[in-house]
From TrEMBL:
Domain Porphobilinogen deaminase N-terminal: 3-204
Function: Tetrapolymerization of the monopyrrole PBG into the hydroxymethylbilane pre-uroporphyrinogen in several discrete steps.
NCBIfam families to which the protein is assigned, alphabetical: hemC
Cofactor: dipyrromethane
Family, similarity comment: Belongs to the HMBS family.
Other facts: The porphobilinogen subunits are added to the dipyrromethane group.
Cofactor note: Binds 1 dipyrromethane group covalently.
Identification of the protein by name: Porphobilinogen deaminase
UniProt cross-references to InterPro entries, sorted A to Z: HemC, Porphobilin_deaminase_cofac_BS, Porphobilin_deaminase_N, Porphobilinogen_deaminase_C, Porphobilinogen_deaminase_C_sf
One Pfam short name: Porphobil_deamC
Superkingdom in the source lineage: Bacteria
Native source species: Paraoerskovia sediminicola
Length: 319
């Protein structure tokens, strides 16, 4: 039976949905179709911070899954609300580069941007951490799709010195050449889930042996543990994806075996203050240990006053 993969219309969405569709076609030997789903997020304009909630890009696609208009949905994991959707399950393919990328004119880097340089981002998390690293920069609120934002710094009508975008999004649409500095993830801590995809299906997908096997092959254990910890942290903070919260987990191997390490930051958007916490667990503990790690690190942030630094619950689509 044909597998229908639902996707938004943007270049980024169709590219990443197409990649998952191709893998599912190979893994199942079945025909796979892309189905275009329209969402509010593509239609709205205005500052990102005024857009309606974390799930603005996701709700319409989830509804299409539940209505049986598609069988598989592909999201950027960082855009997926941390509240589980009843009746749906998420599979996490191997994450690509989770870092934020500076795309500047003339090959400039975060260290070499001139004093007072204008840097565009629509993300409170990036704005706060850029100001922490470089208080002299002028941070400009921008939005639009990846190409529109890149043009602000690199196009013929550029009005900014640089923009910051997710390396993963640039790679997926073939624009890696625009990157002039991949930002150290301990300096600019990525958004929870950044660089990872969420492949979402109805629970019943696992009753179909061929599809269940393919979904199992698509799922990457280290990615799942990492994003589980990052998202548990976000959920514990009751923070939306537009909150100035960075969380990045990695599975690191050492002489004493593997460690799941979670690093996090909550920063005041003006860059005037921040709190950082990090902790680790044994990845052999699986999803439950990863969740407990996220909760523990979030509690450490809250104990250090994170909720006083930033409006964690603020709604809006962010990065
Ligand atoms: N904020 C929007 C968004 N959601 C997912 C990505 C692509 C990167 C990813 O999948 O993590 C982007 C673009 C960006 O943040 O630059």
């Amino acid at each position: 039976m044909t597998i229908r993969v639902g996707t938004r219309g943007s270049t980024l969405a169709t590219t990443q949905s197409g990649q998952v569709a191709e893998r599912l076609a190979v893994l199942t030997g079945r025909e796979v179709d892309l189905v275009r789903i329209r969402t509010d997020g593509d239609v709205l304009t205005g500052p990102l911070s005024q857009m309606g909630g974390t799930g603005v890009f996701v709700t319409a696609i989830r509804q299409a899954l539940l209505d049986d208009r598609c069988d598989v949905a592909v999201h950027s994991l960082k855009d997926l609300p941390t509240t589980p959707a009843p009746g749906l399950r998420v599979v996490t393919p191997a994450r690509v580069d989770p870092r934020d990328a500076l795309c500047a004119r003339d090959g400039l880097t975060l260290a070499t941007l001139p004093t007072g340089a204008k840097v565009g981002t629509g993300s409170p998390r990036r704005a706060a951490q850029l100001r922490l690293a470089r208080p002299d920069l002028e941070i400009v609120d921008i939005r639009g799709n990846v190409d529109t934002r890149l043009a602000r710094a690199t196009g013929p009508d550029a009005d900014l010195d640089a923009v910051v975008l997710a390396a993963a999004g640039l790679a997926r649409i073939g624009r890696t050449a625009a990157v002039t500095d991949l930002l150290d993830p301990t300096l600019l801590v990525p958004a929870p889930g950044q660089g990872a995809l969420a492949v979402e299906v109805r629970d019943e997908a696992f009753d179909d042996p061929g599809l269940a096997e393919a979904l199992g092959a698509l799922d990457d254990r280290s990615t799942r543990l990492a994003v589980t910890a990052e998202r548990a942290l976000l959920r514990r903070l009751e923070a939306g994806c537009s909150a100035p919260v960075g969380a990045h987990a990695t599975v690191e191997s050492g002489a004493h075996g593997d460690r799941l390490v979670l690093r996090s930051v909550v920063a005041r958007v003006d860059g005037g203050a921040s709190v950082r916490r990090e902790d680790e667990t044994d990845p052999a503990g699986g999803d439950d240990a990863a969740t407990a790690l996220g909760v523990r690190v979030a509690d450490g942030l809250l104990a250090a006053g994170a909720a006083d630094l930033a409006p964690l619950r603020e709604t809006g689509a962010g990065a």
